Amino acid sequence: MTSLTNAIPAEPAPLAPAVGGDVPDYFALLKPRVMALVIFTALVGMVVSHGHVSPVIATISLLMIAVGAGASGCLNMWWDADIDAVMTRTAKRPIPDGRIRPDEALAFGLVLSVGSVLILGLAANWLAAGLLAFTIVFYAVIYSMWLKRATAQNIVIGGAAGALPPVIGQAVVSGSVGIESLVLFAIIFIWTPPHFWALALVKAGEYAKAGIPMMPNVAGPTSTRRQIVYYTLLLAPLGLAPVALGFGGLIYAVVGVLGGLGMLAFSVQVLRNREGEAEKRAAMGMFAFSILYLFLLFAALLAEQGLGLFRPLVA
After folding, report:
1. 312 forms bridges with which residues in the sheet?
2. pLDDT tens digits along 96-112
3. How far apart are CA 214 and CA 33, in angstroms?
4. Rg (Cα) of the chain, in Å, rounded?
5. Concatenated DSSP letters for 103-122?
6. Is the pTM of this model over 0.85?
7. Which one of 119, 166, 201, 209 is separated from 39 by 20 to 30 angstroms, measured CA to CA?
8. Which residues of 18-38 are buried (b: 16+ CB within 10 A; e: fewer)?
């Protein structure tokens, strides 16, 4: 087991002096790749719902959900600027790289947070707005300020924030939360640990240097590999729940079965390959395929429910 005691830097890494950011720098604060995933999963939450909303309201709602997700990402970068400066993959983010001052990022994130929640409430309904507000607080405060630096279960518990967009999407359309979006929440929630732990196996040294208690650093790589397999064994059948519940059809079933088998195969490779370049290839292969798997699952639902390609397998 790797101890974190000697891995935590004696002093936070110094931030580069801010020189004043431009539009791309502020956009980078919003974690645009995460925003794209949020828009996608929230849209799927909308299309699987039993209800109707005008295209204008749907568009405004998706935009506000994306802005809210970006705001929480901005607040996360503000809080994590010290550890971002330590890690190679995050050192060039706008705050540690000195392109935006921390106080500017904080103000930007707070304004976007409040604005996105208020506009979503006025445009759609206050249930959706309340869920968005909860998501922002959970990610920016519960995960970023507490869980991330306190426990190796940070990704497990914190994954709830990333799993909520489909629930918000359904709330926008139906004004309630139904079984469809809760199942999608569960799929993303269970998908998150094996996805991130695969990357953490490769980046364990950087996380240790920054003092972040990721699972490979706390429980060790062998235990982490086993847990990746365990979570994947849960995920593969859970991914087929929409078929059993009647809102996933033939296309989704094919994607779910093949994708679930692929996830299991990659997790076994991660378990077996424990040294050298083969270890890195297996872990990064799992990380990359997990992204494809989640995208294809949700794309299949979008195609079936949004484009009229639904062919039920369950009467």
Report:
1. 249
2. 999 999 999 999 999 99
3. 22
4. 20
5. HHHHHHHHHHHHHHHHHHHH
6. yes
7. 201
8. beebeeebbebbbbeebbebb
